[in-house]
Amino acid sequence: VHQSKLDFFCKLGYGKQDICKVLENLGQEALEDDVLKELIRMGSKPQALESQAQPSPLKLIARGSCSASPGSKWLGEDESDSSDHLRPIVIDGSNVAMSHGNKEVFSCWGIQLAVDWFRERGHKYIKVFVPLWRKEPPRQDSPIADQHILEELERQSILVYTPSRKVKGKRVVCYDDRYIVKVAYEKDGVIVSNDHYRDLQNENPEWKWFIEQRLLMYSFVSNRFMPPDDPLGRHGPTLNNFLSKKPVLPEPKWQPCPYGKKCTYGNKCKFYHPERPHQAQLSVADELRAKIKVSLSLGKEEEQRSH
């Protein structure tokens, strides 16, 4: 009888010394309720409440709480070296330059603005594709502004010229869009362009899916490169998730209660109530079950240690 009562209260988390003292005072035939009252009167507490250092395996989330755990922001990875989780960037240089020049001037400054924006985010792999004939001196039918930027980006191994040559006075230009899509597809990166590449989508079904899912459009607002916060629409991923290999954990969203303040379910209501910020998401019964599970698990650990 002594051993059975000792095991029972050990599973509740009470210490063996306190249990033995109470059994000596009340006798071995004392009822369990009387022993429990005496333990509470002595001020003895379960070890689950005393040892705050041990993390509980089950956490209760407050209703309406949208805070993610600060320890792990990326899925299964550390936040220290976030540059490894960013996707490679492949920029359509001609599209970006002409967009910055209002489709009249090939503005190399627009390419520099786009490259600087991705550099500030921490992207290591950035490539810009421009036709080789843009190296030639500007003409009236194809004006170029800030052409020295192309030389500087080429020196930094960021800009790549696609081949072109002249045959009998006519310029033969390779299709630079194919270079852009092919490199981005092989690197599993992101294409920065306002072009939809419909001809290339019809060529290759794999490229079709890739262009639809990895095309990042943009705008220039007062010499500021601005991609959208929702690249794939309102219901798609955010810009940070779109540019990351490891997406950020989504925040939990609770459905608001249709009855609002007139709800009479109290703690049993499973919907979100904004007027109850400190109300637990679990019901009272679920909270008690969770606490019992914690105390039982701690009691088993103590019993294993004693053996």
UniProtKB/TrEMBL annotation:
Belongs to the ZC3H12 family. The keyword Plastid does not apply. PROSITE patterns: ZF_C3H1. GO terms for cellular component: cytoplasmic ribonucleoprotein granule; nucleus. CDD domains: PIN_Zc3h12-like. It comes from Pygoscelis papua (Gentoo penguin). It comes from the Eukaryota. Keywords: Endonuclease, Hydrolase, Magnesium, Metal-binding, Nuclease, Zinc, Zinc-finger. The gene is Zc3h12d. This is ZC12D ribonuclease. A zinc finger (C3H1-type) spans 251-276.
